[in-house]
């Protein structure tokens, strides 16, 4: 893993460079990939928002505002007809029903201002489920009025708050599902690809059987077989497990075919002749040759995990209220009514796209960073 | 090559047997059976009180009382020996009649989607890899991911909505009203294509996202290989260089998953079909499964899975031909 | 032969009489001073006498072509010979219509959500007028009860014909009952709803047009059944009878030729297993057999007949022998064809409507889609209107025969239901789920606007939102809260219930809201959505904590002759749970679970209730007692009632009145005479 470092670097840095471990090198190179760093930052912020959801979200995921149903997003402003203020504010809002179409329509009252404050006191929550607090990142000065940055749904629940809580659920389910399937894929695909022959043949059959079965009926069958008395937490874990258990074959098959195609490369043969253990040959010699491939697959499994979660919700195996995930939220947005009248319920889709993209870009950055030759270009 | 093919063929048969067992287990998973539903249909609203004995009698009549293993062998035996897929309870006719010409339409949708997927994803994937980290790359990636990030149901609904609003497209169905019952002709095929583009786009969009990323990733890997650098150093023209080495290899993982692409597309088909009003097997599968009309569901699952296994077999052979190292290793 | 003679005799008679004026085109909007014996319709003689005119008949110009689509039908005789001698003369609502066009409607599937379109073509011996108060003639010209309500006589129309041109007579009614329903060789188990105290009735064809139902016990309200029921009490004897050895010496050979193993199989192929009409038709079951037999479906008396059916939908054409004419003498129906398409997805239904592709749709249209549909009315060239509903009010009924003895005891305590009723903020529910259009109310075992013994004032107890009082009641029951705020059951476990529901019965928002309110009372609530089939299966198997559905099937005309829906376990489509109680009562305590005294009394009262004519003092007293038992013990917790719902029709569809009620209990469109709807071209 040597490198043709430029001779004009000063000695200390050169020394540091040569003595650095492979992963340190990768990190250094990754840091220089600007897009990947931006993506990592976005994902980091998302993760933080999820972790601190109780404080970031002004209201609970099921907390309702009965006087603002299907309400459009409210944009805090600094100026109105009465002049400007340093503190952002929103106008008071009334919901009325159109007498002909019966549609709920919110009417802002330009006469009343409600000021936005940061680190406002609001609903009593428990951070991480333990620490009690009533401080929220932001809120309204008023007891009754509520700030709905991204509007509300048909029950008057705050879309912003729900999205924050959903971020936590979806990211964690995605990550756990990906991890479980990755470990399984590594073991199964690795064994098949390295051993080849009969072992490979047997594993191939099993992988194929798991893979060719269409997922929807399988989920539906499992949904029916799952004990109905399970709590939402149990359902949550069962879901990550199911996602993981059925997510491995794609990756396993690819790991296997990559391994198969390089198992007779000279350096692998050499390692084998030198008496290296199979796990070492796979881990140290074979896997690194297509790390980026694995990374990409991992990254790309992520949206599938999220979407599988949606599919699970669709067949009734998914999360149930009061749990909320991106999938659950989009599930509720699946109507012509929403497309035409309350498009802000699609905001969680933006989160899905951004998260998925962020993973891709990070994957890209990692690929470049992991590639020892990239510097040469 | 012949021996390799023969071995794979035997493997395919074994897989098909295992798959048929798996399909049968899926058919058995939901609690209850059609006897309950049948009793409900038969007697509801008639004021007849149904006892467990009545239901048991129906069960015997429908042959659902036998032990599971016996039913499996009956089922698969009849299919293999007589091509008889059993009874479609809810339609009170044979499964073959219900599935009938829908199989053809479904195949048309699946392969139409598959072709679109490859036609779009392979060239764009290669292009994106070559122009990696450029605006074009991220733009294309973002666009393809939109198809992946939005649940298919939603995507179908939104596309349908705007297709209708902007282009005044028909809502749903595979044929326009006047063509539905017409015999097959060039005009009818044209009508089918005119209706097929929407589901094909919905289904292909997410599949494209997946394949595009795979091609792009493999291509990037291959581009970084020394052989490419060396060739470039020798002054091989860029296009020729791309086609000669990395592009060929980049298609490798795509080829190896054709069967599974079909499966993935089919998995999403029922939901899209429901929205777009396509009367094909995916939608029928969903309905049959909810109705506990298990022989219909089983037949569809079996046909599909056999097709996938067969395609995997073909892709194995193709792969060995593309990259002989695999064959030697096997 | 005799018939032809009669007809020509009539013609001669008509010719010899002094010429009368042409008949006035009477409509409901303009009756031109005529007052029919029954609302909105006349018998021919009555009409001609009252208007002092002579009605000539006209037909749909497409009728020969339409007839050509009906497999097995021969060439058509002239319209005057196709109509009964005494056709029913119908006054159209707004105008005499013109013929032609196709009515496109949507169902969910072969046997799902089809009753909307079934009702469009439906006929029965009698019908409810659109006031939902008056029973009027339809297939039957008249009816008569004996004094003690044990014998009902129907008079049919002379010369009425099936859709294949064969005569329809009293024999066809007797055949339906004696040779199909009560014939164990054809239907193994006689349907209990046509038994009376477990005894069959005697159905006799006295002459060609007179048929009597002699009942073992008094059934004063039974006529209602013919007015509101999906089931038709006649079957073509000439068609099905030929497969029965009793009527055809060569039946065995015929069955063999047509590929039927026995009588039951032959009847089943055309009729199905019961009076349900949405079962797969022969076209669906075996098209090859249909081609071999030469007849697609059994002849009908309905306005339209199925000529095509597959997994995507049904196609129907007008019945050339239909027995109604309008006041200008035009044979009905006006509309030539019906296209029934299966669209299972609600959003697609909405899109199709907004795109103007649907002529008529009312079943399963939900109130919260109304704003969307209303805003798109102009673009789709349709009208969406709200109609009052019957039987759409949701309820919660806690399972008092729960398998878990602890929950059973809690649910059996009326204070529990009272507390949970007080815990519901009905005004908020009404605003959020029902667009503020319903009325917060309790629910009993009858639809209060349809019966004299229950009024809205009786339904106000425990409807106010009073969490403090609710908590006090729960505390009083000894369900103390744990440190986590969740109440504990007597055995120390947290009090946890699950709401299992199907969105076909009740809206998911309702349950999300209820779960929230009840969580505030310290009860752990989990909501789970299932398909309607799963819900029914779970409810019938006693596997739900709380039954929740819409309270349909309890309108006066229904419960007065079939009290099933006011009792337990209800009908399988709308289970009321508690099957163990019913079993105990049916088996005189040998099996099942002994019900509390008030339930025993409820069954007693209900049994007596149907023996008195609705509206009499005895009936009112018994009805009131049934309601009181329901309300005092809060068997059901009502939420919101009198909820309107939308229905949609293309602007081209004319003569559609404002619906008095949108209710399956009156068989959807049957009171609004879809035969006289017409399409403006």
Automatic annotation (TrEMBL), chain A:
It comes from Rhodovulum bhavnagarense. Keywords: Membrane, Transmembrane, Transmembrane helix, Transport. Its main location: membrane. The keyword Chloroplast does not apply. Signal peptide: none annotated. GO terms for biological process: transmembrane transport. It is found in: Cell membrane. It comes from the Bacteria. Residues 167-363 form the ABC transmembrane type-1 domain. InterPro entries: MetI-like (IPR000515), MetI-like_sf (IPR035906), OppC_N (IPR025966). GO terms for cellular component: plasma membrane. The chain crosses the membrane at residues 35-59, 171-197, 209-227, 233-251, 287-307, 344-362. Pfam families: BPD_transp_1, OppC_N. Belongs to the binding-protein-dependent transport system permease family. It is a multi-pass membrane protein. This is Peptide/nickel transport system permease protein.
UniProtKB/TrEMBL annotation, chain B:
This is Peptide/nickel transport system permease protein. The keyword Transmembrane applies. It comes from Rhodovulum bhavnagarense. The chain crosses the membrane at residues 9-27, 103-130, 142-163, 192-210, 296-322. GO terms for biological process: transmembrane transport. Keywords: Cell membrane, Membrane, Transmembrane, Transmembrane helix, Transport. InterPro entries: BPD_transp_1_N (IPR045621), MetI-like (IPR000515), MetI-like_sf (IPR035906). The lineage of its organism: Bacteria, Pseudomonadati, Pseudomonadota, Alphaproteobacteria, Rhodobacterales. Its main location: membrane. Residues 103-313 form the ABC transmembrane type-1 domain. It is found in: Cell membrane. GO terms for cellular component: plasma membrane. PROSITE patterns: ABC_TM1.
TrEMBL record, chain C:
It holds the Pfam family SBP_bac_5. Keywords: Signal. Gene3D superfamilies: Dipeptide-binding Protein, Domain 3, Periplasmic binding protein-like II. Its main location: periplasm. Residues 134-551 form the Solute-binding protein family domain. Residues 1-21 form the signal peptide. GO terms for biological process: peptide transport. It comes from the Bacteria. Coiled coil: none annotated. It is found in: Periplasm. One of its GO terms (molecular function) is peptide transmembrane transporter activity. Belongs to the bacterial solute-binding protein 5 family. This is Peptide/nickel transport system substrate-binding protein.
């Amino acid at each position: 893993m040597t490198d043709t470092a430029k001779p004009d670097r000063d000695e200390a840095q050169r020394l540091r460079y040569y003595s650095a471990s492979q992963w340190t090198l990768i990190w250094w190179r990754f840091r220089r990939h600007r897009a990947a760093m931006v993506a990592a930052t976005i994902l980091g912020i998302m993760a933080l928002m999820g972790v601190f959801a109780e404080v970031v979200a002004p209201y609970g995921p099921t907390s309702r505002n009965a006087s603002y149903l299907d309400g459009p997003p409210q944009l805090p402003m600094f100026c109105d007809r009465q002049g400007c203020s340093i503190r952002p504010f929103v106008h008071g809002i009334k919901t009325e029903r159109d007498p002909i179409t019966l549609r709920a329509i919110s009417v802002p009252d330009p006469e009343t201002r409600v000021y936005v404050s940061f680190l406002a006191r609001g609903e009593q929550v428990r951070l991480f489920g333990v620490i009690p607090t009533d401080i929220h990142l932001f809120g309204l000065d008023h007891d009754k009025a509520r700030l709905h940055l991204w509007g509300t749904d048909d029950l008057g629940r705050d879309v912003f708050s729900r999205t924050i809580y959903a971020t936590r659920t979806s990211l964690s389910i995605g990550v756990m599902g990906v991890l479980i399937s990755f470990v399984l894929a590594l073991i199964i695909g690795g064994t098949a690809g390295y051993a080849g022959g009969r072992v490979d043949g047997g594993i191939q059959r099993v992988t194929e059987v798991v893979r060719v079965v269409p997922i929807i009926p399988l989920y539906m069958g499992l949904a029916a077989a799952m004990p109905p008395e399970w709590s939402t937490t149990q359902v949550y874990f069962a879901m990550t497990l199911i996602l993981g258990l059925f997510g491995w074959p794609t990756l396993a098959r690819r790991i296997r075919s990559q391994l198969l195609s390089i198992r007779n490369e000279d350096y692998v043969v050499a390692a084998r002749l030198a008496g290296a253990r199979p796990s070492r040959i796979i881990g140290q010699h074979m896997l690194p040759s297509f790390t980026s491939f694995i990374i990409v697959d991992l990254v790309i499994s992520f949206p599938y995990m999220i979407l599988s979660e949606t599919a699970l919700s669709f067949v009734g195996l998914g999360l149930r209220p009061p749990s909320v995930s991106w999938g659950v939220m989009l599930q509720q947005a699946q109507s012509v009514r929403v497309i035409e009248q309350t498009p802000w319920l699609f905001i969680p889709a933006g989160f899905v796209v951004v998260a998925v993209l962020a993973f891709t870009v990070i994957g890209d950055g990692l690929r470049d960073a992991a590639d020892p030759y990239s510097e040469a270009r | 090559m012949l021996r390799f093919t023969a071995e794979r063929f035997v493997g395919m048969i074994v897989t098909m047997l295992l798959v048929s067992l798996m399909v049968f287990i899926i058919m058995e998973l939901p609690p209850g059976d059609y006897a309950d539903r049948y009793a409900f249909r038969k007697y509801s609203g008639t004021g007849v009180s149904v006892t467990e004995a009545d239901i048991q009698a129906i069960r015997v009549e429908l042959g659902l009382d036998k032990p599971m293993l016996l039913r499996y062998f009956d089922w698969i035996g009849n299919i293999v020996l007589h091509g008889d897929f059993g009874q479609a309870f809810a339609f009170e006719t044979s499964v073959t009649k219900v599935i009938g010409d829908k199989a053809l339409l479904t195949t048309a949708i699946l392969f139409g989607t598959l072709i679109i997927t490859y036609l779009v994803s392979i060239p764009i994937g290669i292009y994106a890899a070559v122009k990696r980290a450029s605006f074009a790359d991220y733009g294309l990636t973002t666009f393809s991911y939109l198809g992946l990030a939005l649940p298919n149901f939603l995507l179908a609904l939104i596309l349908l909505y705007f297709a209708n609003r902007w282009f005044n497209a028909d809502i749903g169905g595979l044929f326009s009203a006047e063509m539905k019952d017409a015999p097959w002709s060039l005009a009818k095929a044209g009508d089918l294509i005119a209706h097929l583009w929407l589901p094909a786009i919905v289904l292909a969009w997410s599949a494209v996202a997946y394949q595009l990323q795979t091609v792009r990733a493999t291509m990037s890997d291959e581009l970084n290989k020394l052989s490419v650098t060396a060739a470039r150093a020798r002054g091989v023209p860029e296009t020729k260089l791309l086609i000669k080495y990395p592009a060929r290899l980049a298609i490798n993982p795509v080829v190896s998953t054709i069967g599974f692409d079909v499966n993935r597309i089919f998995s999403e088909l029922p939901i899209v079909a429901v929205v777009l009003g396509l009367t094909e097997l995916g939608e029928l599968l969903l309905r049959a499964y909810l109705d506990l009309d298990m022989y219909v569901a089983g037949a569809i699952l079996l046909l599909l899975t056999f097709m996938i296994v067969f395609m995997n077999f073909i892709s194995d052979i193709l792969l060995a031909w593309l990259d002989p190292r695999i064959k030697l290793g096997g | 032969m005799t018939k032809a003679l009669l007809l020509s005799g009539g013609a001669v008679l008509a010719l010899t009489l002094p010429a009368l004026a042409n008949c006035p085109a009477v409509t409901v909007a303009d009756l031109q001073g005529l007052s029919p014996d029954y609302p909105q319709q006349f018998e021919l003689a009555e009409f001609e006498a009252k208007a002092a005119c002579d009605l000539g008949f006209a037909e749909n110009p497409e009728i020969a072509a339409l007839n050509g689509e009906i497999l097995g039908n021969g060439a058509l005789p002239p319209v005057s010979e196709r109509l009964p001698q005494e056709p029913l003369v119908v006054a159209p609502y707004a105008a005499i219509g013109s013929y032609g066009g196709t009515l496109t409607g949507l169902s969910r599937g072969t046997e799902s959500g089809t009753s909307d379109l079934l009702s469009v073509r439906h006929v029965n011996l009698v019908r409810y007028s659109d006031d939902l108060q008056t029973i009027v003639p339809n297939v039957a010209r008249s009816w008569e009860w004996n004094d003690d309500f044990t014998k009902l006589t129907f008079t049919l129309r002379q010369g009425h014909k099936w859709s294949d041109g064969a005569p329809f007579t009293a024999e066809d009614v007797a055949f339906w009952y004696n040779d199909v329903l009560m014939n164990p060789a054809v239907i193994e188990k006689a349907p209990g709803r046509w038994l009376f105290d477990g005894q069959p009735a005697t159905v006799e064809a006295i002459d060609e047009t007179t048929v009597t139902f002699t009942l073992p016990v008094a059934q004063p309200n039974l006529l209602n059944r013919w007015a509101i029921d999906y089931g038709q009490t006649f079957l073509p004897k000439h068609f099905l009878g030929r497969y029965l050895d009793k009527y055809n010496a060569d039946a065995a050979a015929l069955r063999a030729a047509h590929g039927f193993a026995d009588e039951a199989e032959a009847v089943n192929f055309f009729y199905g297993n019961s009076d349900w009409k949405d079962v797969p038709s022969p076209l669906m079951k075996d098209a090859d057999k249909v081609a071999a037999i030469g007849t697609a479906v059994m002849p009908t008396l309905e306005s339209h007949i199925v000529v095509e059916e597959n997994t995507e939908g049904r196609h129907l054409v007008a019945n050339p022998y239909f027995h109604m004419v309008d006041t200008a003498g035009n044979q009905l129906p006006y509309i030539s064809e019906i296209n029934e398409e299966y669209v299972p997805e609600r959003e697609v239904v909405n899109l199709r409507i907004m795109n103007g592709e649907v002529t008529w749709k009312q079943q399963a249209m939900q109130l919260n889609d109304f704003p969307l549909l209303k805003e798109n009315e102009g673009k789709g060239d349709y009208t969406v209107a709200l109609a009052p509903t019957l039987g759409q009010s949701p309820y919660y009924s806690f399972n008092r025969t729960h398998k878990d003895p602890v929950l059973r005891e809690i649910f059996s305590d009326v204070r529990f239901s009272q507390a949970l009723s007080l815990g519901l903020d009905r005004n908020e529910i009404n605003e959020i789920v029902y667009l503020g259009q319903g009325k917060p109310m309790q629910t009993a075992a009858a639809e209060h606007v349809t019966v004299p013994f229950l009024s809205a004032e009786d339904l106000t107890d425990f409807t106010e939102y009073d969490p403090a009082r609710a908590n006090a009641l729960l505390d009083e029951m000894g369900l103390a809260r744990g440190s986590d705020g969740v109440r504990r059951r007597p055995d120390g476990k947290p009090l946890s219930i699950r709401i299992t529901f199907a969105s076909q019965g009740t809206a998911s928002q309702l349950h999300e809201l209820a779960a929230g309110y009840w969580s505030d009372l310290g009860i752990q609530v989990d909501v789970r959505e299932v398909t309607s089939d799963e819900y029914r299966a779970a409810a019938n198997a006693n596997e739900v904590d709380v039954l929740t559905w819409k309270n349909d099937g309890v309108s006066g005309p229904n419960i007065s002759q079939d009290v099933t829906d006011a009792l337990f376990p209800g009908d399988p489509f709308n289970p009321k749970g508690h099957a163990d109680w019913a079993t105990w009562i049916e088996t005189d305590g040998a099996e099942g679970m002994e019900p509390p005294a008030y339930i025993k009394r409820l069954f007693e009262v209900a049994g007596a209730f149907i023996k008195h004519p609705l509206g009499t003092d005895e009936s009112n007293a018994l009805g009131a007692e049934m309601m009181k038992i329901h309300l005092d013990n809060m068997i059901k917790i009502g939420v919101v009632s009198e909820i309107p719902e939308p229905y949609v029709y293309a602007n081209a569809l004319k003569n559609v009145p404002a619906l008095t009620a949108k209710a399956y209990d009156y068989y959807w469109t049957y009171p609004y005479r879809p035969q006289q709807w017409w399409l403006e071209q």
